[in-house]
Amino acid sequence: MAVTSVRFNAKEEKILKILKKHYGCDASTLIKKSLWELYEDIKDREIIDAFEKKEKKGKNKFETIDEII
Fold first, then answer.
1. Exposed e or buried b for every residue in 20-58, given b needs 16+ CB within 10 A?
2. Cα–Cα distance measured from residue 21 to residue 13, given in angstroms and rounded to the nearest whole number
3. Averaged over 14-27, what is the pLDDT?
4. Is 65 helix (H, G, I), strand (E, B) or coil?
5. CB-based contacts of 19, cutoff 8 Å, min separation 6
6. Which DSSP letter does residue 58 get?
7. Which end of the chain has fewer CB atoms < 10 Å from its terminal CB, N or C?
8. In this predicted structure, what is the pLDDT of residue 69?
């Protein structure tokens, strides 16, 4: 497992302390959760961009619930 050192200024340390208390977890868990959230945002954006690209070409098709079932 890799170890990464992160330096925080006083304001960032205060925010980290507030977040740790709010979420009830340690700094490591909080940072890991944040990384996953940021990564998920990137993946969501890729899916949206692909959808919008297909939409501009008129290739998206919406189906009714009856068609799905």
1. eeeeeeeeeebeeeeeeeeeeeeeeeeeeeeeeeeeeee
2. 12
3. 97
4. helix
5. 30
6. T
7. N
8. 86
